[in-house]
Design a protein that fits this description.
Its cofactor is FAD. By secondary structure, the protein is an alpha/beta fold. It folds into 3 domains: about 5-200; about 205-295, Translation factors (Elongation Factor Tu (Ef-tu), domain 3), CATH 2.40.30; about 300-425, 3-Layer(aba) Sandwich (Rossmann fold), CATH 3.40.50.80. The protein is built from 17 helices and 11 strands. The strands form 2 sheets. It has a 6-stranded antiparallel sheet. The radius of gyration is 26 Å and the shape is elongated. The chain binds flavin-adenine dinucleotide.
């Protein structure tokens, strides 16, 4: 996670707390009425987190520069979403506590009635619970999960409306109102961009399938070309891809680009294991592929002069195919060494063997290639890497493969005193 992004969130939270105190004509009231004050500050901070949750799901390219790669952005989106829910629920619970014994206020808080501002609060809270529980407690298909996630805009709108009409610090103190409304505006712009504008005005590139090959281990390698504008990308980045093909669902799925930006054609390598990826096997030559992207910061530090150790498991080889092909054709090979450790079950799974061997012959001195067939050689671990390389410090470690493999190797590397900042992951399982 980038520090810039964390500071931005901390700034919003701290400024909200500061403005909350300034909004009080007598700040001592915060101490005198602690339960009410906790309830009020919870609602303000809950709304700030809610706004950030929308902002972080906006899929703006600049988000990766502020918060780090898209998987980190989405993780932070989930955290801010959860925190906003906890704080908004706390707002409600502390209000009830504050008015225990006051039946008129309790009725206003709990039951819809004549008072619009309270009704909006009740609607906001319950619609938020409804959307959240339908995400948490039903096993939704990914596309439905996304659609329902987008409907969080409904509780958000009730919440904003409630915040604007209820007599409170916000209605009394203009700077606090302006500060909150700025966040609200960013949240709405993000939602409108992601849901309405992104499909038309997002970074979109049209390609065609020039050739493809299906390997016995269910890996489909596609070569794409375009007559239009080529997608500019860095080695190891990924794009959201949709195919215009009768047998394939019209959905965007993320895939790493398995070719170098210096290559003429753009290559994808897809392992068929779920609904969509299995359908890709029915693709035909000449059919259209729409790419949205590029995204990802995986290879950002690959351009450092430090030697790089690339650790791939199974289909996790794809970003490295782009990075290593780029390494072969660029001046980067003159300033650093790259060591690739590629773990696959057996020879059949190793569909890129010939290509990797050719590259390592080509870049003999600066690229070492280590292929591990787990059925024969056992699991790849940090000990294996240490035996092959000797000194492990002062190197960068790039990991892409099954989550369990990445976690195991990363924790072994940390035990060998490799700093966490030098271990970089590409997580294929983020949503
Ligand atoms: C950054 C990144 C790069 C990737 N690169 C590659 C690659 O080079 N080669 C490769 O074979 N796989 C890659 N994947 C994984 C690939 O995207 C998933 O395997 C694929 O989307 C699963 O879809 P499915 O319907 O076949 O499988 P399912 O079994 O239906 O889905 C499996 C899981 O994939 C996720 N998923 C489903 N639909 C989507 C969607 N539209 N968008 C995002 N996630 C979804 C959900 O978490 C779901 O639980 C990558 C993933 C990421 C995040």
């Amino acid at each position: 996670m980038r520090k810039k992004g964390i500071f931005l969130i901390i700034f919003s939270l701290a400024a909200t707390c500061g403005l909350f105190i300034l909004a009080k004509t007598n700040p001592a009231i915060i101490i005198q009425k602690p339960v009410l004050s906790i309830s009020q500050i919870s609602s303000l901070l809950g709304m700030i987190f809610f706004c950030y949750a929308f902002f972080l799901s906006g899929r703006f390219s600049f988000l990766e520069n502020i918060f780090g790669s898209l998987d980190k952005v989405y993780k932070l989106h989930q955290i801010t979403g959860r925190l906003s829910f906890i704080l908004i629920i706390s707002h409600f619970i502390f209000l009830i506590f504050n008015y225990l014994g006051n039946s008129v206020m309790l009725k206003l808080l709990l039951l819809p009635g004549q008072n619009l501002s309270y009704n909006l609060g009740i609607l906001g809270l319950w619609s938020m619970c409804l959307v959240l529980s339908s995400i948490l407690y039903s096993s939704l298909e990914y596309q439905w999960f996304m659609r329902i996630q987008r409907s969080f805009i409904i509780p958000f709108t009730f919440g904003v409306w409630h915040m604007l009409v209820i007599p409170s610090d916000i209605s009394r103190y203009m700077p606090l109102a302006i500060f909150l409304l700025l966040h609200v505006a960013v949240a709405y712009v993000s939602w409108i961009y992601r849901v309405i504008l992104y499909p038309f005005f997002g970074p979109r590139f049209e390609y065609k399938v020039e050739s493809f090959q299906v390997f016995p281990n269910d890996v489909i390698v596609l070569s794409l070309t375009t007559e239009g504008k080529k997608m500019p990308f860095l080695p190891g980045q990924f794009a959201y891809v949709k195919f215009e093909s009768l047998g394939i669902k019209k959905e965007f799925h993320p895939f790493s680009i398995a070719s170098s930006p210096l290559d003429d054609k753009l290559r994808l390598a897809i392992r068929a294991f779920g609904d969509f990826t299995t359908q890709v096997k029915t693709i035909k030559i000449g059919e259209k592929a729409t790419l949205m992207g590029p995204y990802g910061k995986f290879s950002e530090r690959f351009f450092d002069r430090k030697d790089s150790v690339c650790i791939a498991g199974g289909i996790g080889i794809t970003p490295f195919l782009g990075m290593i092909n780029y390494f072969k054709d660029s001046k980067l090979k003159e300033v650093k060494n790259v060591h690739l450790f590629y773990s696959v079950r057996n020879e059949t799974d190793n569909v890129f063997r010939q290509e990797l061997e050719e590259i390592s012959v080509n870049v003999q001195q600066n690229l070492s290639l280590n292929i591990i067939h787990t059925e024969k050689d056992g699991r790849l671990d940090a000990g294996f890497i240490q035996n092959a390389l000797g000194e492990l410090k002062e190197k960068l470690y790039f990991l892409c493969g099954p989550k369990i493999m990445m976690e195991d190797i990363a924790s072994q590397l940390k035990k060998l005193r490799i700093p966490a900042r030098n271990i970089i992951y590409e997580d294929f399982s983020f949503q």
